[in-house]
Design goal:
Length: about 475
């Protein structure tokens, strides 16, 4: 049978070009993470890694083995190793829903693409083939915190700064890379129509020179496969390819269970086995969302591309605190002036004009700027859009999995299964939320969160109703 994976050639970056930024000392590995700092090289590469069309800057080793990470309360077991940031894969298949996206190839090479305008990074530019050190270290902090709370997510084995990339088979220094990009931005400044546009471009140049450092990230996951991968494979190969994917995920779940001493096992060869598997992952999609909300954070992109077939949430660079708490330390009679003045180090917006502003005994609280374009209340439920987006996107991903994938597998009664999955998702969300009240300071109770979660899951998962994407503010 045709494989859903393809192979791409990589080569090792020289050890002298790599600097350790982070190495996970709690992980028991049969290899040195730094040895896996690979970069795509179709010209001279002598290593082959597995790649999938919608994993645009990551590839995996193609092996499954138990990798134990020692936790404070309990150990975690991962099964697959993924290398991220080693060049842009499948550029011809790249799709973006962002309007007006502009990309530039560097030296007419497909390994690295520069996006002068990006909404996915605080610095408003991005290299589609590379991973920025700032994002990598943010991910490290987020996943270490959330994994300890019981969330199923990825782990990082190591992060390594590189002083070079590979373009057209040749080593190019990061200084030369920056110089090429600065030239592009300088040309854009010359063509700019306003002082504001020029100022923004000049800021990007300064940030690029001072702060941009590409890194190779070695990731650990229970499964590198996502719901999105199953959807694409169903279209390209058919149901045998999907069953092959589910089988790989089940094999990894069994490796994890055995290493942890658990008796439960998964089997993708029968409809009953596939139902057991999908109920497990849907429970964990709900529980992961509940854990994040319990901890006061939102993911913002819980779509099919970030939900693995082992019940994990990955690509955690978008995670942010939903609320910002500001403490007032002055005299009580000056508090109102403080509220109207806002943050002197911010954009000058009065605190009272921030979305979901509430005055508290010790200061005030409002929606954090970290959540970007989804800060306002939504029309249907009145919740912050970023919070609602997590629930909608998760449920809609499960709906699409039912509609486009599970219905085409033999022996699967999806019409009956939908209600079970809706119940599993809500049960998981309740379990993850664990009776907490993370957003009571802005008038949102835990019961309200569960009520909204239940309504969305019943509508979208159980009944298969369409729910439009949450619009930006």
């Amino acid at each position: 049978m045709e494989s859903f994976f393809s192979q791409e050639h990589f080569r090792s970056l020289p050890k002298e070009s790599l600097q350790e930024v982070y190495e996970n000392k709690r992980v028991e590995l049969p290899f040195i993470p730094k040895d896996l700092a690979f970069f795509v090289d179709t010209t001279h590469g002598n290593l082959q890694l597995r790649v999938l069309p919608y994993h645009h800057r990551s590839a995996d080793l193609g092996i499954s083995l138990p990798i134990v990470e020692r936790g404070k309360r309990e150990n975690r077991v991962y099964c697959q190793v993924d290398v991220k940031g080693g060049g842009f894969l499948f550029p011809k298949s790249f799709e973006s829903k962002k309007d007006g996206i502009v990309m530039g190839q560097l030296d007419d090479a497909e390994e690295v693409y520069f996006m002068p305008d990006s909404k996915e990074t605080p610095w408003s530019y991005d290299f589609l083939g590379l991973m920025d050190e700032r994002l990598a270290m943010r991910v490290t902090e987020v996943i270490e915190m959330l994994a300890e709370t019981g969330m199923r997510t990825e782990a990082l084995a190591g992060v390594y700064r590189t002083d070079r990339v590979v373009i057209n088979g040749q080593d190019v220094s990061i200084d030369d890379l920056k110089e090429k990009v600065v030239d592009q931005l300088q040309q854009a400044i010359s063509a700019a129509n306003s002082d504001h546009e020029k100022s923004e471009l000049e800021g990007k140049i300064e940030d690029l020179k001072e702060n941009f450092d590409p890194v190779i990230v070695i990731r650990l996951m229970r499964s590198v496969l996502r719901i999105r991968d199953m959807k694409e494979v169903m279209g390209d190969i058919g149901q045998e390819g999907v069953v092959q994917m589910i089988s790989e995920a089940c094999k990894n779940l069994n490796i994890e269970a055995k290493a942890l001493g658990h008796s439960d096992r998964f089997d993708a060869s029968t409809p009953e086995g596939r139902e057991k598997w999908v109920k497990f992952v849907c429970f964990w999609y709900g529980k992961n969302a509940g854990i994040m909300h319990r901890e006061g954070v939102v993911h913002q992109f819980l779509h099919m591309g970030n939900l693995t077939l082992a019940g994990e949430v990955v690509d955690m660079d978008s995670v942010g605190q939903l609320l910002t708490h500001k403490k007032f330390r002055g005299r009580p009679e000056n508090k109102e002036k403080w509220i109207k003045r806002g943050d002197r180090n911010g954009d000058g917006t009065p605190f009272s004009e921030r979305s979901f502003f509430r005055s508290t005994d010790d200061g005030c609280v409002f929606i954090s700027p970290e959540v970007g374009l989804h800060q306002q209340p939504d029309e249907r439920f009145g919740l912050p859009k970023a919070l609602l987006k997590d629930l909608r996107d998760s449920c809609f991903s499960i709906h699409l999995m039912c509609k486009n994938i599970l219905t085409k597998l033999p022996g699967m009664n999806v019409s009956e299964l939908r209600q079970k999955l809706a119940d599993d998702f809500v049960r998981g969300y309740k379990d993850g939320l664990d009776g907490s009240e993370p957003f009571d300071k802005i008038g949102i109770t835990g019961d309200r969160l569960i009520s909204v979660c239940t309504e969305i899951s019943e509508s979208v998962i159980a009944r298969g109703e369409y729910y439009a994407p949450i619009p930006i503010d």
